[in-house]
Design goal:
The structure is a homodimer. By secondary structure, the first copy, chain A, is α+β, with helices and mostly antiparallel strands. Chain A is built from 14 helices and 27 strands. Helices cover 34% and strands 28% of the residues of chain A. The radius of gyration of chain A is 26 Å and the shape is globular. At the A-B interface, strand 2, helix 2, strand 3, strand 4 and helix 3 of A face strand 2, helix 2, strand 3, strand 4 and helix 3 of B.
Chain lengths: 507, 507
């Protein structure tokens, strides 16, 4: 057996994928569990990634005519009950506020008091509370389309939680729009789906598959849910975000009506769509390696980290003067749509310790600068898309001249790597036995490792969907949009089918 | 009696100040009450102001070494009980989560289920929950200072609410920092106070008085609370934000300890500080007039609104071509730290209706462009710091050349106007009878109208403070920092005093 190379993260992805994930989040200082059940603390490095996701998406929403607003955290129970499917979907996992103060319990502690006449639900999503406002805001076709977005926290009481992937409280944006026709609302739904998928590819360097959810997987109360699904390195699917066409269901529940150009009063057509802090989990699992996180430059809080190396005060003086020069040269530069973010790590720690910390955190470019580099007016560069020990020296001026090109190269490399991985692990298949074998773990020690995504026919019956879920723990992730009609037979029951769907295990 | 000039807002400030405020918020489309008790909906125009406040302050926090993070919405009851003064300050007004789901109540409705073993409090402020994380993050002097900020929603159950000024849920930022010494923590407290006050003056065009709160007015659990107070146009004070030196109280409650350079384990020193969506209320009441909101250009969501005026399709074509030219000329310009925000209002409404809408919303510069303006290559400009009918024509090219200068002039004018108003209404006084008369409303029809701020001596006794509060509804807003020691006598009891304080009625 070959000697195992030492990695910064134990266990490795191969050894134990969920364990690896947990250790990466910790090693990169992204987030931690709080003592509040299922709620996470997003630490500065994790939050910095979220801030970049926010700013980028926010600019794109505004460029497509949306504006931000803010609606109440609490939803009266009666609002919630208005849309039957909706309430059924969320009632089992919502935090309920029943009292408005605490008072002395007579035993040195406090007990809830001020019982509310109507319980309040901490929003798991805001269709019903936003709908109540929209009903007041919309009265004529002139008020439409109404294109609103909200950045907020939401709460869904989860039993099994995992940092970023599934937490009781999470951060998200939720778009809510109102339109005068079904077609306009459907166009908005698809426009946003494309905006999301492009963002995933271009910024998160994450290849995704756009598709429609089946009836059983759609948002509670929606007419149609569209999703973009990504493949993690354990070959499981992760739903990265959704865009819903709500038809007139929520407009009817909230009474959102408008007078048409022809003077007829009609119910409006609505959409809603969102992405969450889960994207950070997706980012980690798409690009991370056995040394930690690998961040796409376009979303990294820091693009270039500079680690000065010296052994004494004299060396420190020379090195820091040079580092200052380097910092000045990079100061007003931009990378893509943001200012270039350069960080000089002059903490009182060993150089190697610092370098490894930044590898684990996933910073795209590391520069080490020691006295010999200063003498040669050079920097020693490590790239996060390459092996930790694969470093190269270059003139400082050359680095400054090429830095944006280097960052683009890293962005492209990690996207291509993820794209190749995904493409290699989507298998088109038509045989039931092959299908079953594909989803059966081969490695008893690590049951997470299985085949990948299967692109196979489905007859459209909910029972076939239900059967694979029960037998193989596999669900239909989506009906991909990019496909031609094709005659075939359902991989589960053998009945005729015209479309292939993505079957996969999932988060 | 002179004929009253028609105003866009009824009642006027003189007639009924609280009524005027309510109407301005509505007319400018800033926010509305939701059907959830005490919770507001922040509409796009109001939220746009908040976004500019956020971006500006966020940049300033980052420039002074702070980073953002995110902590749980819920605080376990037991955390809350750790700091005695703190819990006493907030127990009477907190939303309590007691259940984690809803279930069928057997009568077609839903009832709370899944009772929690420990109740959760929706954060009214986060010292205790953040302290629990900090206790894990800090172990050595090398980890200090720890400089964290959070943008979040908080809940304080208020009985009487007013949009922006006092709502059950509001948005804010809360800074939380940890230091190795009392001096460092005090320096941070004062640095942030100055950052806030400078921001208020330079961006919100709002003159403020920086000072220290008395013992009875300080934050529950703080060693010292510093405030910056602004004067509204009804001459009442508004606490615009606070910065707290927490000493070691919260460090002891949360067990935040560190090993000093000398190897000794010590409790850390902490601070916290925040401003809220209340600033928008302050902005309205500082600058607003009887025609609506007046926005300082540096914080306005739109700097220049262009209203095309035409009567037929032909005119429309000519006018819109010219407006497009104007828009192109302004497109890549910047004002202060942001891109110049220009909005062309081409909605299908009468020109006069649109112009008045933008006046009410407080946009700094309005341009009206009709066929005659196009013929002369001119624009017709109205400025929000002047009377609505006081408009002036100028060459379009001259406008483009001078637009940033015009915006600066508006910014300065509204600051100076507010500063003059405040200075004229702070009276230094030493006579008890004059003091009482000053705070007694002169106008029976409008009891809001009284003297203003009194700068008078206070002996330091809580009983004197309590007496003026009871007798005159006046509180000590702060002990101003900018003053020399001076011998005098307490305006309430006549005992010797060395300092003057600001007495005022307040929000």
């Amino acid at each position: 057996m070959a000697k195992k190379e030492k990695t910064a993260i134990t266990p490795t992805r191969q050894e134990n994928y969920p364990g690896w994930y947990q250790q990466v989040v910790k090693a990169a200082d992204l987030a931690e569990n709080s003592e509040v059940r299922g709620c996470m603390v997003i630490k500065p490095w994790g939050y910095g990634i979220w801030e970049n996701i926010q700013r980028t998406l926010d600019d794109k929403f505004k460029a497509t005519g949306h504006v931000n607003a803010y609606f109440p955290l609490f939803i009266p129970k009666s609002y919630f009950e208005k849309e039957a499917e909706h309430v059924e979907g969320f009632a089992k996992e919502c935090a309920v506020v029943t009292h408005s103060r605490l008072e002395d319990d007579g035993h040195g502690g406090l007990k809830p008091a001020g019982k509310l006449t109507e319980e309040l639900i901490v929003r798991p999503t805001s269709e019903t509370i936003i709908g109540a406002s929209f009903a007041k805001w919309v009265s004529s076709y002139r008020d439409l389309p109404l294109l609103i977005n909200q950045w907020a926290n939401v709460v869904r009481w989860e039993l099994r939680t995992r940092l970023f992937l599934r937490t009781t409280e999470f951060l998200w944006q939720e778009g809510h729009t109102v339109h005068a026709s079904s077609q306009e609302a459907q166009d908005e739904t698809m426009m946003i789906l494309k905006l999301y998928a492009d963002f995933a590819r271009e910024y998160l360097a994450m290849p995704v598959i756009e598709g429609r959810k089946t009836e059983s997987e759609k948002f509670p109360g929606a007419e149609a849910t569209y999703t973009f699904e990504a493949m993690m390195q354990d070959k499981k699917a992760l739903q990265a975000g959704t865009s819903h066409f709500l038809g007139q269901k929520f407009a009817k529940a909230s009474n959102i009506k408008f007078q048409s150009k022809e003077g007829v009063e009609e119910f409006a057509w609505t959409t809603s769509w969102g992405v969450t802090t889960r994207l950070i989990g997706a980012l980690i699992m798409t690009h991370g390696d056995d040394n930690g996180v690998v961040l796409p430059p376009r979303i990294a809080p820091v693009h270039v980290v500079v680690v000065p190396i010296y052994r004494n005060e004299e060396e420190q003086k020379t090195v820091m003067a040079f580092v200052q020069e380097l910092e000045d040269a990079l100061k007003d530069m931009r990378y893509h749509e943001r200012a270039l973010q350069v960080k000089v790590d002059d903490r009182d720690l060993r150089g190697g310790e610092k370098v490894w910390e930044w590898i684990k955190k996933g910073v795209p470019v590391r520069l080490e600068v020691g006295p010999r580099d200063v003498a040669a007016a050079s920097v020693f560069m490590g790239r996060r898309d390459m092996e930790p020990r694969q470093k190269s020296g270059m003139k400082m001026t050359d680095f400054v001249e090429n830095v944006t090109g280097i960052l683009d190269e890293i962005q492209n490399n990690i996207f291509k790597k993820a794209e190749t991985f995904m493409n290699e692990n989507i298998i088109s298949m038509d045989d039931h036995d092959v299908f079953c074998d594909y989803f059966t773990p081969k490695n008893a020690e690590n049951p997470e490792i299985h085949g990948g995504f299967a692109l196979a026919h489905w007859c459209g019956d909910a029972s076939c969907e239900e059967n694979v879920k029960k037998d193989l723990k596999v669900t239909i992730r989506c009906i991909p949009l990019a496909q031609e009609a094709e005659e075939g037979r359902c991989i589960v029951c053998g009945k005729p089918s015209t479309k292939r769907v993505i079957y996969a295990k999932s988060y």
